């Protein structure tokens, strides 16, 4: 962006304004540099014109967004934001996604208008009025050639129902997103078997299936299912059969379509396949609910097995012994039978197993029964084998876990154990579990199961096996809560207090997870979340600034996540900003104010918490507090007009009451006042010997009086030979001075009233009169009296020159360090001390004091 300014201010700043929806200052340029608000650098703008006080205003805007559009202008006041001669920035963007408007429900053989409605998004928002959009139309995703108007006209036929219309809008080569057509999803057509049935296993789910009917207006479509006891409503929505679990009694699912008084239905016949657990019969008795049966030796043994299922399952009956199974009979029917009509023998003691299987599906089942043949003979009992515990020890919490105690009888003969079943005893952490005597226990897993050890024993005929090895469950679980170590101390607002620039951490964020969670840290600023430096869940030392509002611990475990934050109260205090008479002067050492003009001082201290602000006046090593406020702002005014005595160093102090944060900034205020007599100080006369006199006239002035403008008028009101020899500052007060004049060797005719003028303006007057010698002396003594004062006068001149040079050097040194440190006073004896010492010298009482008279009466000095 560039333009030429009419002029550039010699003092103050040239401001660049951006106006769009609101007016704001984006940068300010002075002859010494550029500021972007309260910063000297920013990534958004760059001022490239050099030198800074050039009237060629040139700057860059980076990463342009729609909000950067608008009117840019500059000047020395806010009125310039609306003045002519600026630059308009226009930012283009693609138009809004269009909507198509028109009466979509219409009779055939009529004309239909479709309108593509969109809007420009270019900024400023009044810009799009200068531009028109062009349009592109599509039929079934194919572009229509030569159709660039907002509206198209169609001659409607019944075939138009199969077309989908869409459009885009274009501005300055930027094309909008295209409006629909909406996507339709169809469930695949069910696959039927040879009997035109849809095959499904019992317990499985059918759906979703979308049933559509070509109706206009649309039909009302619903679903039902048919069981042996009639029709029932199925769960559906907008013609879609939702997931429906089926059982063997469901024979059909039916779609029903209704349109006004007409209706139609179409069904899907179901072939629900299933297989039940086998039912076992021993010698005419159903024994499926028993573990074993006892048969007397030489008695008949008849076993039957029935398996119900669809389709009809194959059924096999087998004998299991020594880890091997022998198939005794098999049938492709629901039934299988096996008989020992000649009588059972001891060797027939075994476990008999009934198997059922569907040949066309993967459905299968089995059931076993122990048959113990009671025969004569001897047996020997022994304790069972040491058990092993089986089960899926690594499992999710809130699920069920089965643990089985696996052991085996060691009694002889080896088929004897068939007659007896084992009992079991379970232990948790070596403590017997009461009431648990089954082979298998079922546990609802919690995270606390990780601390338990499970073991068991098996018992036969009172003989207990050795205890199994203990097993431990490994429950899998994610975080329930996050814990900070050490625990932060919060204030009343539940925030963690920290000073800007200090470091937070290390803080350990732990989560009870198995396997361990992935723990990381982030911190939140005004522009979003950012990764914080962390390791193994430990937030490492993190320096914070005022923009950081939270530090957040994030824990992730598989698909689960949890977070916990620490809200921060970042406390800070900025350097004070000082305003004198409406001008910001914090970057300056001092300001000059004309005497009798108003003096308004404002001090702003930004901080958190809100700091107390004091304004003080520092003078002669002491500070007087002028005003104090418990707010960011403080004001002090001298509306009646500033005086010379108001010249001082004014200091703005900021302090946070609840923290140890404090700051200060000072500004020298110099009141420009013309020289005049200091009525609060006394005029002095110093003497060495004879007729030499040193007159010290106290004067108030700033800047210090110019020695060349000081003139002594003699009694004849004409400039005299008496001249002011030096002007020195008094007691480090920059507006109080001493005009030093050495008077000697006056002739008789030159005694009388002398007037001191500054720049032709009267300051004061002194009467110098002759005083006769106390007693006459020899001629040689008079010569000595003349010589000695001449020698002393020469010494006085040398000391005076040293003193003046010293005072100027000291003032320059003090000015250099005025805002950073106190000036150390030199220990070398000064001319000022020499003058003070001379006041106490009494040389033969040959002088009189210079006394102050009334304002109209001149001072008298006797020589």
TrEMBL record:
Residues 95-187, 278-370, 384-474, 576-668 form the Ig-like domain. Its main location: membrane. InterPro entries: Cell_adhesion_signaling, Ig-like_dom, Ig-like_dom_sf. GO terms for molecular function: cell adhesion molecule binding. The chain crosses the membrane at residues 786-806. Keywords: Disulfide bond, Glycoprotein, Immunoglobulin domain, Membrane, Transmembrane, Transmembrane helix. It is a single-pass type I membrane protein. GO terms for biological process: cell-cell adhesion. It comes from the Eukaryota. One of its GO terms (cellular component) is plasma membrane. It is found in: Membrane. This is Ig-like domain-containing protein. It comes from Magallana gigas (Pacific oyster). The lineage of its organism: Eukaryota, Metazoa, Spiralia, Lophotrochozoa, Mollusca.
């Amino acid at each position: 962006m560039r333009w030429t300014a009419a002029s550039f201010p010699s003092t103050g700043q040239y401001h660049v304004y951006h106006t769009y929806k609101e007016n704001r200052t984006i940068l300010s340029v002075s002859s010494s540099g550029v500021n972007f608000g309260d910063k000297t650098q920013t990534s958004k703008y760059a001022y490239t014109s050099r030198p800074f006080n050039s009237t060629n205003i040139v700057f860059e805007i980076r990463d342009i967004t729609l909000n950067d559009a608008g009117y840019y202008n500059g000047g020395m006041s806010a009125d310039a934001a609306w003045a002519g001669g600026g630059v308009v920035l226009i930012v283009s963007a693609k138009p809004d996604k269009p909507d198509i408007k028109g009466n979509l429900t219409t009779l055939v053989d009529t004309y239909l208008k479709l309108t593509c409605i969109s809007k420009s998004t270019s900024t400023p928002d009044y810009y799009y009025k200068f531009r028109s959009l062009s349009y592109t139309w599509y039929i079934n995703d194919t572009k229509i050639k030569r159709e660039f108007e907002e509206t198209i006209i169609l001659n409607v036929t019944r075939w138009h129902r199969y077309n989908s219309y869409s459009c885009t809008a274009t501005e300055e080569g930027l094309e909008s997103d295209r409006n629909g057509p909406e996507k339709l999803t169809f469930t695949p057509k069910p696959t039927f078997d040879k009997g035109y049935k849809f095959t499904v296993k019992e317990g499985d789910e059918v759906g979703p299936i979308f049933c559509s009917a070509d109706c206009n207006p649309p039909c009302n479509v619903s679903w039902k299912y048919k069981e042996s006891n009639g029709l029932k409503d199925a769960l559906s929505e907008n013609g879609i059969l939702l997931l429906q679990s089926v059982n063997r009694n469901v024979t059909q699912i039916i779609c029903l379509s209704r349109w006004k008084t007409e209706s139609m239905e179409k069904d899907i016949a179901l072939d629900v396949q299933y297989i039940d657990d086998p039912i076992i019969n021993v010698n005419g008795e159903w024994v499926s609910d028993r573990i074993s049966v006892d048969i007397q030796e030489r008695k008949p043994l008849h076993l039957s097995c029935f398996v119900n299922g669809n389709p009809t399952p194959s059924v096999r009956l087998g004998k299991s012994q020594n880890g091997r199974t022998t198939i005794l009979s098999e049938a492709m029917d629901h039934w299988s039978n096996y008989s020992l009509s000649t009588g059972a023998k001891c060797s027939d003691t075994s476990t008999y197993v009934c198997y059922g299987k569907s040949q066309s599906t993967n459905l299968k089942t089995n059931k076993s029964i122990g048959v113990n043949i009671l025969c004569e003979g001897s047996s020997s009992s022994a304790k069972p084998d040491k058990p092993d515990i089986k089960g899926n020890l690594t499992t999710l919490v809130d699920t069920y876990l089965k643990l089985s105690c696996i052991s085996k009888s060691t009694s002889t003969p080896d088929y004897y154990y068939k007659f007896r079943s084992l009992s079991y005893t379970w232990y948790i952490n070596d403590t017997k579990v009461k009431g648990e005597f089954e082979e298998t226990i079922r546990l609802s897993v919690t995270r606390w199961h990780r601390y338990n050890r499970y073991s068991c024993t098996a018992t036969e005929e009172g003989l207990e096996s050795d205890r199994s090895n203990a097993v431990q469950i490994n429950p899998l679980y994610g975080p329930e809560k996050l814990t900070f170590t050490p625990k932060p101390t919060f204030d009343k607002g539940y925030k963690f207090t920290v000073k800007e620039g200090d470091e937070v951490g290390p803080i350990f964020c732990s989560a009870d997870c198995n396997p361990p969670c992935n723990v990381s840290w982030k911190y939140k600023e005004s522009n979003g979340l950012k990764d914080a430096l962390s390791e193994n869940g430990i937030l490492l030392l993190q320096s914070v600034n005022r923009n950081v509002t939270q530090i957040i611990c994030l824990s992730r475990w598989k698909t689960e996540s949890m977070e916990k934050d620490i809200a921060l109260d970042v406390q800070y205090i900025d350097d004070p900003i000082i305003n004198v008479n409406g001008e910001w002067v914090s970057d300056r050492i001092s300001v000059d104010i004309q005497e009798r003009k108003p003096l308004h001082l404002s001090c702003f201290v930004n901080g958190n918490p809100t700091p107390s602000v004091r304004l003080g006046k520092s003078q002669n090593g002491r500070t007087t507090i002028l005003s104090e406020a418990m707010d960011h702002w403080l004001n002090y005014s001298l509306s009646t007009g500033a005086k010379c005595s108001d010249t001082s160093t004014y200091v703005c102090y900021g302090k946070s009451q609840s923290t140890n944060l404090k700051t200060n900034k000072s500004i020298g205020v110099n009141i420009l006042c013309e020289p005049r007599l200091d009525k609060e100080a006394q005029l002095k006369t110093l003497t060495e010997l004879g007729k030499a006199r040193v007159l010290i006239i106290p004067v108030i002035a700033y800047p210090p009086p110019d020695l060349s403008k000081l003139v002594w008028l003699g009694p004849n009101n004409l400039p005299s030979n008496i001249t002011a020899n030096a002007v020195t500052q008094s007691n480090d007060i920059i507006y109080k001075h001493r005009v030093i004049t050495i008077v000697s060797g006056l002739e008789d005719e030159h005694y009388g009233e002398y007037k001191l003028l500054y720049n032709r303006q009267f300051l004061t007057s002194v009467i110098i009169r002759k005083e006769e010698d106390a007693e006459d002396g020899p001629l040689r003594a008079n010569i000595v009296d003349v010589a000695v004062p001449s020698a002393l006068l020469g010494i006085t001149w040398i000391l005076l020159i040293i003193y003046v040079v010293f005072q100027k050097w000291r003032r320059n040194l003090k000015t250099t360090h005025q805002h950073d440190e106190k000036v150390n006073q030199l220990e070398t004896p000064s001319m000022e001390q020499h003058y003070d010492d001379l006041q106490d010298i009494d040389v033969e009482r040959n002088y009189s004091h210079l006394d102050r008279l009334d304002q109209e009466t001149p001072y008298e000095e006797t020589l």
